[in-house]
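forwarding from the other thread:

> can someone predict this with zinc ion?

sure thing
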Amino acid sequence: MTQRFAIGPRETAGLDTAGLRQHFLIENIFTPGAIELTYTHYDRMIVGGAMPTEAGLALPNPGSLKATYFLERRELGALNVGGAGEIVVDGTTYALGLQDCLYVGRGSQQVEFRSVDAASPAKFYLLSAPAHKEYPTTLRTQAEATPVEMGTLETANQRTIYKYIFNEGIASCQLVMGLTQLKPGSVWNTMPSHVHDRRMEAYLYFNLPQGQHVLHMLGEPSETRPLWVSNEQAILSPPWSIHTGCGTSAYAFIWGMAGENLEYTDMDAVALADLR
Ligand SMILES: O=C(O)C(=O)C[C@H](O)C(=O)CO
Ligand SMILES: [Zn+2]
Protein backbone atom coordinates (compact mmCIF):
# COMPACT_ATOMS: atom_id res chain seq x y z
CA MET A 1 0.00 0.00 0.00
CA THR A 2 1.45 3.33 -1.04
CA GLN A 3 0.94 6.47 1.01
CA ARG A 4 -0.01 10.10 0.29
CA PHE A 5 0.36 12.83 2.87
CA ALA A 6 -2.15 15.65 3.18
CA ILE A 7 -0.96 19.06 2.02
CA GLY A 8 -2.57 22.50 2.30
CA PRO A 9 -3.64 25.16 -0.21
CA ARG A 10 -0.46 27.28 0.12
CA GLU A 11 1.86 24.34 -0.61
CA THR A 12 -0.40 23.22 -3.48
CA ALA A 13 -0.29 26.64 -5.15
CA GLY A 14 3.51 26.36 -5.40
CA LEU A 15 3.57 22.93 -7.09
CA ASP A 16 4.53 22.34 -10.71
CA THR A 17 2.69 19.82 -12.91
CA ALA A 18 4.76 16.86 -11.70
CA GLY A 19 4.19 17.88 -8.07
CA LEU A 20 0.43 18.21 -8.56
CA ARG A 21 0.28 14.77 -10.17
CA GLN A 22 2.42 13.22 -7.44
CA HIS A 23 0.09 14.50 -4.69
CA PHE A 24 -3.36 14.29 -6.27
CA LEU A 25 -3.38 11.73 -9.10
CA ILE A 26 -3.42 7.95 -8.66
CA GLU A 27 -2.44 6.55 -12.03
CA ASN A 28 -2.81 2.86 -11.37
CA ILE A 29 -6.09 1.60 -9.92
CA PHE A 30 -6.69 -1.64 -11.86
CA THR A 31 -3.94 -4.22 -12.41
CA PRO A 32 -5.07 -7.65 -13.72
CA GLY A 33 -4.76 -10.24 -10.96
CA ALA A 34 -3.90 -7.70 -8.24
CA ILE A 35 -5.22 -5.32 -5.59
CA GLU A 36 -3.83 -1.76 -5.64
CA LEU A 37 -4.21 0.39 -2.51
CA THR A 38 -3.24 3.98 -1.69
CA TYR A 39 -3.51 5.32 1.85
CA THR A 40 -4.26 9.03 1.91
CA HIS A 41 -4.00 11.16 5.05
CA TYR A 42 -7.02 13.18 3.93
CA ASP A 43 -9.52 11.72 6.40
CA ARG A 44 -7.42 8.50 6.28
CA MET A 45 -9.28 7.29 3.21
CA ILE A 46 -7.84 4.26 1.38
CA VAL A 47 -8.41 4.37 -2.38
CA GLY A 48 -7.82 1.35 -4.58
CA GLY A 49 -8.96 -1.29 -7.01
CA ALA A 50 -9.26 -5.08 -7.16
CA MET A 51 -9.19 -6.78 -10.55
CA PRO A 52 -9.43 -10.54 -10.08
CA THR A 53 -8.84 -12.78 -13.10
CA GLU A 54 -8.67 -16.61 -12.81
CA ALA A 55 -8.09 -16.66 -9.06
CA GLY A 56 -9.90 -14.79 -6.31
CA LEU A 57 -8.11 -11.92 -4.57
CA ALA A 58 -8.18 -11.63 -0.79
CA LEU A 59 -8.30 -8.17 0.76
CA PRO A 60 -4.83 -7.93 2.32
CA ASN A 61 -3.90 -6.67 5.77
CA PRO A 62 -1.17 -4.10 5.08
CA GLY A 63 1.34 -3.87 7.94
CA SER A 64 0.97 -0.09 8.11
CA LEU A 65 -2.63 -0.49 9.39
CA LYS A 66 -1.30 -2.26 12.49
CA ALA A 67 -4.58 -4.18 12.58
CA THR A 68 -5.43 -7.86 12.98
CA TYR A 69 -7.31 -7.67 9.65
CA PHE A 70 -8.10 -4.88 7.16
CA LEU A 71 -11.62 -4.10 8.40
CA GLU A 72 -10.89 -4.39 12.13
CA ARG A 73 -11.36 -0.61 12.48
CA ARG A 74 -12.57 0.25 8.96
CA GLU A 75 -15.51 0.07 6.58
CA LEU A 76 -15.29 -0.54 2.82
CA GLY A 77 -17.23 0.39 -0.31
CA ALA A 78 -16.67 -1.62 -3.53
CA LEU A 79 -18.26 -0.54 -6.82
CA ASN A 80 -17.90 -2.75 -9.89
CA VAL A 81 -17.04 -1.04 -13.19
CA GLY A 82 -16.04 -4.24 -15.04
CA GLY A 83 -17.55 -7.64 -15.90
CA ALA A 84 -19.77 -9.65 -13.55
CA GLY A 85 -18.12 -10.32 -10.20
CA GLU A 86 -18.59 -11.64 -6.71
CA ILE A 87 -17.43 -10.52 -3.30
CA VAL A 88 -17.31 -13.13 -0.57
CA VAL A 89 -17.54 -11.64 2.93
CA ASP A 90 -16.97 -14.10 5.79
CA GLY A 91 -18.50 -16.92 3.73
CA THR A 92 -21.47 -15.03 2.23
CA THR A 93 -21.30 -14.42 -1.54
CA TYR A 94 -22.63 -11.18 -3.06
CA ALA A 95 -23.03 -10.97 -6.86
CA LEU A 96 -22.14 -7.57 -8.36
CA GLY A 97 -23.05 -6.68 -11.92
CA LEU A 98 -21.91 -3.57 -13.74
CA GLN A 99 -22.12 -0.52 -11.47
CA ASP A 100 -23.47 -2.37 -8.43
CA CYS A 101 -22.04 -1.44 -5.03
CA LEU A 102 -21.32 -3.46 -1.90
CA TYR A 103 -20.79 -1.86 1.51
CA VAL A 104 -18.74 -4.08 3.82
CA GLY A 105 -19.07 -3.28 7.51
CA ARG A 106 -16.39 -3.00 10.16
CA GLY A 107 -15.50 -6.33 11.72
CA SER A 108 -15.72 -8.37 8.51
CA GLN A 109 -12.62 -10.54 8.63
CA GLN A 110 -12.32 -12.24 5.26
CA VAL A 111 -13.14 -10.44 2.03
CA GLU A 112 -12.43 -12.03 -1.35
CA PHE A 113 -12.98 -10.52 -4.80
CA ARG A 114 -13.80 -12.82 -7.75
CA SER A 115 -14.56 -12.49 -11.46
CA VAL A 116 -17.29 -14.67 -12.95
CA ASP A 117 -15.38 -14.84 -16.26
CA ALA A 118 -11.63 -14.14 -16.30
CA ALA A 119 -11.94 -13.09 -19.95
CA SER A 120 -14.21 -10.24 -18.85
CA PRO A 121 -12.86 -9.46 -15.39
CA ALA A 122 -14.69 -7.54 -12.70
CA LYS A 123 -13.08 -4.25 -11.67
CA PHE A 124 -13.94 -3.32 -8.11
CA TYR A 125 -13.14 0.29 -7.22
CA LEU A 126 -12.46 0.40 -3.47
CA LEU A 127 -12.82 3.12 -0.85
CA SER A 128 -12.23 2.50 2.85
CA ALA A 129 -12.52 4.86 5.81
CA PRO A 130 -12.05 4.44 9.56
CA ALA A 131 -15.27 3.26 11.25
CA HIS A 132 -16.38 3.56 14.88
CA LYS A 133 -19.13 0.89 14.77
CA GLU A 134 -20.41 -2.01 12.71
CA TYR A 135 -23.08 -1.46 10.05
CA PRO A 136 -24.49 -4.43 8.09
CA THR A 137 -22.80 -5.47 4.88
CA THR A 138 -25.28 -4.37 2.21
CA LEU A 139 -25.56 -4.64 -1.58
CA ARG A 140 -27.19 -1.84 -3.60
CA THR A 141 -27.55 -2.40 -7.32
CA GLN A 142 -27.44 0.48 -9.76
CA ALA A 143 -31.19 0.01 -10.33
CA GLU A 144 -31.74 0.66 -6.61
CA ALA A 145 -29.52 3.75 -6.51
CA THR A 146 -32.30 6.25 -7.27
CA PRO A 147 -31.05 8.36 -10.19
CA VAL A 148 -31.11 12.16 -9.97
CA GLU A 149 -30.92 14.16 -13.21
CA MET A 150 -28.82 17.33 -13.17
CA GLY A 151 -27.61 20.00 -15.61
CA THR A 152 -28.64 20.66 -19.21
CA LEU A 153 -27.31 19.82 -22.64
CA GLU A 154 -27.14 23.56 -23.43
CA THR A 155 -24.52 24.01 -20.70
CA ALA A 156 -22.84 20.67 -21.57
CA ASN A 157 -23.30 19.33 -18.01
CA GLN A 158 -26.33 17.03 -18.33
CA ARG A 159 -25.69 14.05 -16.07
CA THR A 160 -27.27 11.38 -13.91
CA ILE A 161 -26.19 10.96 -10.30
CA TYR A 162 -26.58 7.58 -8.60
CA LYS A 163 -26.17 7.51 -4.81
CA TYR A 164 -25.35 4.28 -3.04
CA ILE A 165 -23.77 4.86 0.39
CA PHE A 166 -25.16 7.96 2.12
CA ASN A 167 -27.61 8.93 4.86
CA GLU A 168 -30.70 7.89 2.85
CA GLY A 169 -29.11 4.82 1.22
CA ILE A 170 -26.72 2.21 2.61
CA ALA A 171 -25.88 3.13 6.22
CA SER A 172 -22.21 3.73 7.05
CA CYS A 173 -20.08 5.44 9.68
CA GLN A 174 -18.53 8.08 7.41
CA LEU A 175 -18.21 6.65 3.92
CA VAL A 176 -20.32 8.27 1.17
CA MET A 177 -20.18 6.79 -2.34
CA GLY A 178 -21.91 7.23 -5.68
CA LEU A 179 -21.53 7.44 -9.42
CA THR A 180 -22.17 10.12 -12.02
CA GLN A 181 -22.73 9.38 -15.73
CA LEU A 182 -22.57 12.23 -18.23
CA LYS A 183 -25.03 12.23 -21.12
CA PRO A 184 -23.63 12.08 -24.67
CA GLY A 185 -22.58 15.60 -25.67
CA SER A 186 -22.09 16.74 -22.08
CA VAL A 187 -18.57 17.12 -20.74
CA TRP A 188 -18.65 19.15 -17.49
CA ASN A 189 -18.93 17.43 -14.12
CA THR A 190 -19.65 19.13 -10.82
CA MET A 191 -20.47 22.33 -12.63
CA PRO A 192 -21.21 24.70 -10.95
CA SER A 193 -18.23 23.74 -8.80
CA HIS A 194 -18.22 23.38 -5.04
CA VAL A 195 -16.08 22.75 -1.98
CA HIS A 196 -17.04 20.91 1.22
CA ASP A 197 -14.62 21.67 3.98
CA ARG A 198 -16.07 18.96 6.18
CA ARG A 199 -15.17 16.07 3.86
CA MET A 200 -12.43 14.98 1.50
CA GLU A 201 -13.42 13.42 -1.81
CA ALA A 202 -11.87 10.94 -4.24
CA TYR A 203 -12.84 10.54 -7.91
CA LEU A 204 -12.38 7.59 -10.28
CA TYR A 205 -12.84 8.66 -13.89
CA PHE A 206 -13.97 5.79 -16.18
CA ASN A 207 -16.02 4.96 -19.30
CA LEU A 208 -13.77 7.32 -21.26
CA PRO A 209 -13.65 6.24 -24.92
CA GLN A 210 -10.23 5.34 -26.33
CA GLY A 211 -8.08 8.44 -26.79
CA GLN A 212 -10.33 10.74 -24.74
CA HIS A 213 -9.24 12.44 -21.51
CA VAL A 214 -10.54 14.61 -18.68
CA LEU A 215 -9.11 17.90 -17.51
CA HIS A 216 -9.70 17.78 -13.74
CA MET A 217 -9.52 21.07 -11.85
CA LEU A 218 -8.50 21.44 -8.23
CA GLY A 219 -7.26 24.07 -5.79
CA GLU A 220 -8.86 26.86 -3.82
CA PRO A 221 -11.52 28.72 -5.83
CA SER A 222 -9.18 31.71 -6.09
CA GLU A 223 -6.15 29.58 -7.16
CA THR A 224 -7.20 26.70 -9.42
CA ARG A 225 -4.91 24.18 -11.13
CA PRO A 226 -5.56 21.77 -14.06
CA LEU A 227 -4.61 18.10 -14.13
CA TRP A 228 -4.99 15.80 -17.16
CA VAL A 229 -6.53 12.44 -16.25
CA SER A 230 -6.77 9.23 -18.31
CA ASN A 231 -9.39 6.49 -18.19
CA GLU A 232 -9.55 4.58 -14.88
CA GLN A 233 -7.29 6.96 -12.99
CA ALA A 234 -8.25 8.47 -9.63
CA ILE A 235 -7.97 11.93 -8.11
CA LEU A 236 -7.66 12.93 -4.46
CA SER A 237 -9.63 16.06 -3.68
CA PRO A 238 -8.80 17.82 -0.40
CA PRO A 239 -11.70 19.29 1.61
CA TRP A 240 -10.62 22.87 0.79
CA SER A 241 -10.37 22.22 -2.95
CA ILE A 242 -12.84 22.66 -5.76
CA HIS A 243 -13.23 19.54 -7.87
CA THR A 244 -14.71 19.88 -11.26
CA GLY A 245 -13.78 18.35 -14.59
CA CYS A 246 -14.25 18.79 -18.31
CA GLY A 247 -13.82 15.85 -20.69
CA THR A 248 -13.00 15.69 -24.36
CA SER A 249 -16.11 13.45 -24.53
CA ALA A 250 -18.77 12.16 -22.14
CA TYR A 251 -17.52 9.87 -19.35
CA ALA A 252 -18.48 8.61 -15.90
CA PHE A 253 -16.90 8.90 -12.48
CA ILE A 254 -17.27 7.42 -9.03
CA TRP A 255 -17.15 9.93 -6.21
CA GLY A 256 -16.60 9.01 -2.60
CA MET A 257 -16.14 10.98 0.57
CA ALA A 258 -15.20 10.65 4.22
CA GLY A 259 -15.37 13.18 7.03
CA GLU A 260 -17.93 14.91 9.20
CA ASN A 261 -21.31 13.78 7.87
CA LEU A 262 -23.22 11.61 5.39
CA GLU A 263 -25.39 14.26 3.76
CA TYR A 264 -24.84 14.39 0.02
CA THR A 265 -26.08 17.98 -0.09
CA ASP A 266 -23.48 19.30 2.34
CA MET A 267 -21.50 21.35 -0.18
CA ASP A 268 -20.74 25.04 -0.67
CA ALA A 269 -21.27 26.16 -4.25
CA VAL A 270 -18.67 28.44 -5.82
CA ALA A 271 -19.94 31.13 -8.18
CA LEU A 272 -18.34 30.88 -11.61
CA ALA A 273 -17.34 34.54 -11.38
CA ASP A 274 -15.28 33.76 -8.25
CA LEU A 275 -13.11 31.11 -9.90
CA ARG A 276 -9.56 32.14 -10.77
O1 LIG B 1 -21.46 15.87 -11.26
C1 LIG B 1 -21.64 16.18 -10.08
O2 LIG B 1 -22.14 17.28 -9.73
C2 LIG B 1 -21.21 15.24 -9.05
O3 LIG B 1 -21.25 14.06 -9.24
C3 LIG B 1 -20.73 15.81 -7.81
C4 LIG B 1 -20.27 14.79 -6.79
O4 LIG B 1 -21.32 13.97 -6.50
C5 LIG B 1 -19.75 15.49 -5.59
O5 LIG B 1 -18.85 16.26 -5.70
C6 LIG B 1 -20.36 15.25 -4.29
O6 LIG B 1 -19.79 16.08 -3.32
ZN1 LIG C 1 -18.00 17.20 -3.94
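The first strand starts at residue 2 and ends at 4. thats all i got for now
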